[in-house]
Predict the structure.
Amino acid sequence: MKNLEKILEWGGMKRDVIFLILSGAALLLSIFGYSPFPFDMAWVAIILCGIPIILEAVVGLVTEFDIKADVLVSIALIASVIIREDFAAGEVAFIMQLGALLEDLTVEKARAGIEKLVHLTPRTARRISGDAEEIISAEDVRVGDILRVLPGESVPVDGVIVTGETSVDQSVMTGESLPVDKGPGDEVSSGTVNQFGAFEMKADRVGEDSSIQRMIRLVQSADAGKAKIVNLADRWATWIVVIALTAAALTWLISGEIIRAVTILVVFCPCALVLATPTAIMAAIGNAAKHGFLVREGDALERLADVKKITFDKTGTLTYGTPQVTAVVSFSSGLSWEYLYAYAASTELNSEHPLGRAIVRSYQEEMKNAPAVPEEFRMLPGRGVQAEVNSHNILAGNPELFLENDIPFTDEMKKRADLFTEKGCTVIYLAIDGRSAGFLALSDTLRQDAAATVDEVKAAGVTPVLLTGDHKNAAGHIARQLHISEIHADCLPEDKLDWINTYENQHIPVCMIGDGINDAPALKKARVGIAMGKIGSDIAVDAADIALVNDDIGELPHLLRLSRRMMTTIRLNLTFSMILNFAAILLAITGILNPVVGALVHNAGSVVVIINSALLLGWKKKM
């Protein structure tokens, strides 16, 4: 039996394409009665397309007693050959193999996400022993080891900072768009990236217990737990076989004509039934591609049609994922916000901090001007920066920077700054020549089409949910702007996965939309996962069923409507094919149809199904 399975696997899809081309050409020659050999050319289709079907049926029956649609096809093929209706046998084999190829094309997918997560795992660590430093494998780190992490390096294991100040990019774990300042006593996670400033840490969770390894296991478990849809023809195959054999046997017994019985088997072959789903799916996938969606799972659109909730990640999905200066507030009547903005941009010009770079970029974009080059510059890790601009001593950073330099931090300043922090903004305070001057507020910004997209999703009867690793203030501010009432903030990857599980356990199908590595487990687990293909991480894209190539979420409502239209087309195809088959059976029982005409009639039904499915290629709902 193993040898049979190897034969079936030989060549895969390339073999099927070659066999179909040769079989199609042979059937055309058979129609015109031409054959350079002493046998009907339809035998080429019988051998190339029919034998794999028969072998597949035998393997399924013998190994698992699994009755699929190919069992009935095999019976019809053998019966047609016995009564020498070679063309009917070859035609049925050709159509069935064509349907199988279309189905294979819809479910083909690359699976590289877990491997990329493994590659993301830090390979080495710098262990400190006394005054000595040694580079060891990350797998050899033990709990309690003291490790040093340099700027630009990934944190090798989970632990706590012992000495040093830095800023850490935690987007791999939380999806936060802004880096987080860290100091002694703060926790750091494996896989996150040290932005600048060396620090020493004490290892806390190592090996399989580390955050990045837990993420890998989450992705693996989510993938294993996702249900797959069974082909409808195979789901009904047992009943189809029983009905077809019973009708054929009774007809033979009553009429005494075996040709009528064989005709019943031929017309009852579920060609149109097999083609009904994959042809519609392929047409819908082509339509989706025109609107910027790369459908990576063949049955993803089937699942999407059932979705009741869509969970949106915030950063990079509903927002652009890059911090922007949203407000400049001056506390000095003699200092305009434009001058304060210019001083801030000059002060941060040489900064390595992502927020500093964001201030410079925002200034250049908004003011259409390059900031002045500072005469002096100094980084103050964990606090901010100090610079001399136009002979003025300027400090830019957090409240601790003000306190350490004895600069008054008044209640009015705090009150006005709180208005922005409550909206999820990050505030950078400025002092000029020892006096507080004002602050800049930075935040992530909404995509232009985010609000309209959420409104259309609601109009389609689907509930939007905000599922993000960002702070509740930032999440709440975005949710209020988009009128999203259901919010889950401060979510780690396992938290997002838990929420997806909660909805699924309540029998609420969920679609997850995200872009970050931290979204990968949830994208895998959700009924349908959609990744932002342009700015999204490769791992998120690999974990998802669908990739939005150009990140235009405004096309999401079209995809929802398309999936439902596709299911309507599939149901029409199935209904038509079954009605046609039963009508053909009645004609076969009465002797009106012979096997060849019967094959042509029911294959004409297959053509109608294909044409109906093809209409999906250009479908778009008129608004």
